Amino acid sequence: MIPRYLVDIDLAELPVVERDVIVIGAGIAGLFTAIKASESQSVLMITKKSIMDSNTRYAQGGIAAVLSEDDSPEYHLQDTLFAGAGLCDREAVDVLVHEGPEGVQNLIEMGTHFDTENGEYALTKEGAHSQRRILHANGDATGFEIVRALSEKAVSNPNIEIWDDHFVIDLATNEDECCGAIVQKPDGQRVYVRGKATILCSGGTGQLYRYTTNPDVATGDGIAMAYRAGADIRDMEFNQFHPTSLCYPGAPRFLISEAVRGEGAVLRNIRGERFMERYHEQLELAPRDVVARAIISEMEETKSTFVYLDITHEAPEMVKHRFPNIYEFCLNYGLDLTSDWIPVAPAAHYMMGGVQTNLNGETTIKRLYACGEVSSTGVHGANRLASNSLSEAVVFGKRIVDHIKGLEPLTAMPVVVNEHGRTSVPMQAVVEKRLKLQKIMVRYVGLRRNADGLRKGQEELARQLPIFQSVLTKREEYEFANLLTCALLMIESALQREESRGAHYREDFPETNDAVWQKHSVLNRRTANGMKERVHNV
């Protein structure tokens, strides 16, 4: 069983730090929400590495918002609902498409420079979008530009205190109310931080897989600690694999943006044949899950570990101007985007599920909020529409800040129940354990799943459960415990959903079954067996 807390502590002995708002994590969700909250409240922002280390930083394509006269919120709504494969919460999508443009305006006011053409914002189109509505920065470095602007603003803000290299071990709760968090400092000392509102902005779960576009920090910490605290965790079976990450000896799994296909790139198998017409009428711009599975099928058929992305037919100047970072990155490994076919393969990219929230970003635990990839707002459904994630973070970040303005000061004291029977044996070879977990996930819980494989994965991971009886002291130990928690939640949800929908594909149930499965899967540790599905019709 997964315990309530990862460590045994006596709360009365810990130093206490109090602020109005505690933001856990950086990225666009954490930075934007902290800046907005700081206008009227004191904010403590805690990151386990630095405010420059997040998934946002690596986001290339851009941010989706309706800014063109040819576009409308209704079009954006329909595109999002279509990609989400029947599982989007329509109200949440409605909020996103109507409030997205204002969110983009906020980013611009905070110093973000988006690309322009002839004095207007340059809008591009990505997979499954019907209109050009994606703003980008420095061609293909949108995320980096947003993080640059927001982090400069946050660092110079007197109302925001930033703790880099601090690890949040657990949320401190009293019944159904969050009172703050237990944090480990770089020197190993622990501290209790308390506040009126605690906001999880801790990102996704990319490190569950060996091949991922995510940085090392994406270990699902927020989802795991919210689960331990008793929050509802929703739709964990929907993990998006990006179809095109660089797959080349010696190179990391660098993301090759969907926008490259949006600008005309085609996919070819190793025989040089363009193949997407065999899979979908939208060809290379089909929804991501379709493209990713098509690539896997071609790789199996041609006994290859990759396919090619080919944009050599477009003007070299356009390619270099539009994708300067991708062009330069590939060049470092001897690949020229303008003249070479680039070897690519799918990699874990984005978690559509997460900590369930309402339209104000509030979780099922009072005073606990979630924003960005850690959250499940209902916007993404079973498959995220490209470039909706950055807009989701700013739209719901602002809603959270508006909601917490009305909160009374915290009076509850957290209750920490220490688990008995933790052994003082330090964890052995946690790096090895993490690699083993990643291999299990790739093998059994990847782009294609079936009951036998999922159960096998569940059994193999269950052998790692004794970690929760160990005395944990290091960041990598906490991270492994969190990854293990998220892996088990994902497998449980994937086993329950006996159909294929969006990013969740079951070989033993290849059809989508709306009559039975057009509903969310919800896991909560307080219900029977610690993992019991409750479902809500959509």
UniProtKB/TrEMBL annotation:
Q: Which gene encodes it?
A: nadB
GO molecular-function annotation terms? L-aspartate oxidase activity
State where it is primarily located: cytoplasm
Q: Native species of this protein?
A: Paenibacillus thailandensis
PANTHER family for the chain: L-ASPARTATE OXIDASE (PTHR42716), L-ASPARTATE OXIDASE, CHLOROPLASTIC (PTHR42716:SF2)
What role is this protein assigned?
Catalyzes the oxidation of L-aspartate to iminoaspartate.
Every FAD-dependent oxidoreductase 2 FAD-binding domain range: 20-390
Q: What is this protein called?
A: L-aspartate oxidase
Query: Which parts of the chain span the membrane according to its record?
Result: none
Q: Gene3D superfamilies, from UniProt?
A: FAD/NAD(P)-binding domain, Fumarate reductase/succinate dehydrogenase flavoprotein-like, C-terminal domain, Succinate dehydrogenase/fumarate reductase flavoprotein, catalytic domain
Q: Which EC number(s) does the record attach to this protein?
A: 1.4.3.16
Similarity annotation: Belongs to the FAD-dependent oxidoreductase 2 family. NadB subfamily.
InterPro entries attached to this UniProt entry? FAD-dep_OxRdtase_2_FAD-bd, FAD/NAD-bd_sf, Fum_R/Succ_DH_flav-like_C_sf, Fum_Rdtase/Succ_DH_flav-like_C, NadB, Succ_DH/fumarate_Rdtase_cat_sf
